[in-house]
Input
Amino acid sequence: MRHLSLSSRLALLFAACTAVVSLFAGVLFSRASEAHFVELDQQLLDGKLIGLRRALHDIQSSESKIRLADELSRQADLSLRITGSDGQRWYDSSTQLPDKLPQTSGLSTLNDGGTDYRVLNAPLFVDKPDSPQLTLLLDITHHQHFLQRMQHLIWLTVGLSALATALLGAWAARSGLRPLRRMSAVARGVSAQSLNARLPEENMPPELAELAHSFNAMLGRLDDSFQRLSAFSADIAHELRTPLSNLLTHTQVTLTRPRPIEDYREALHSNLEELQWMAQLVNDMLYLAKADHGLLTPKREPLELAQEVDLLLEFFAPPAEDAQVTLTREGNAHLEGDRSMLRRALSNLLDNALRFTPVGGEVRVRIVEQAKGLSLTVENSGDGIDGALLPRLFDRFYRTDPARQEGSSEHAGLGLAITQSIVRAHGGQIRCESGNGWTRFVIELPKGS
Output
């Protein structure tokens, strides 16, 4: 059975069910027919018994023998044996009657020499204990032949029904499983170059519609992941191309002719900056790769957010003072989380806010404790962000500033992606809102995150 197709299994199951039902119905019909014949024979023999008792009321008279012969002549398949109270045989209406007959009173069945009899034993005189015994024998061979033919017909019907059901079941199963074959064909056609194939959910039966929807959703996720992976690889190559070109060009220029030791030292320092940026870029990509595979496991330690935010604002105070930007913090909340990871996420948001806040602007951090968690908002004044760009802000290597689309030694476009990974690792969500001269990054974290 393990090697049979699903269509074959369903066909065999249909056939087995039909065979069992047909056999059960046939057996019931056979038993009912047999019981019906027994009831008819009982009624017939009871009626004949009354007539024979009336005919043999005076068993010694000659008229009794005439009435007995007349009564037996009315039923050709009926025979009679009369025995005395001492067991001596008095009378046989036929010479072909069996020698040994059932002695139990009432109705019974006997087979003798291929002939079937229904036998009824009863006393001739009910009120006399030494009454002679009447044994009525009804030939029911034709009844039995009918029952045997019916049983053969039942077995034939069971076999033919099972065969017909198997064939019809195979056809029905094959037709019903056609959506699965289409699904298999789509699955065979899926490759890295053709992830846009989808199953037509509107033509699916209800039982397979949910499976088709899940299958299409899986293809959609695969397509999205593959596109993101392809874009990620292209972005990595794009980001590394410029610093590598700078390193090669700078090194080649430096080596074109002999130079003073200070020039070589300056070239090495310049190359070191590029290498440090590339190392940071690789570390950030590894960090995001760990986040994608669910390997970021935050530590759980009690934190006071106001204290953590104040430390970061103190760190960013010098560049904010140079840019004439005001830093403020409102509210406080307590939570359990990873101190270093949350500091990194907030640092990314504050750094991003400072870079896009105009001179004389303001950066505010607001902390609000809620019933089911807390909300932390980093907002800055300045030009808003186009609503069409908001969904892409957390994409890797994405920059809203067109002047920074080429790789550079700073701000590779991974800060917001890393921040989102850290927030999600703590079980929270982050979103961006922009309007009315303010841009807000809102972090929502559950209690105990």
In short: DSSP finds nine helices and twelve strands in the chain. The longest strand covers residues 115-123. The two ends are 51 Å apart (CA to CA).
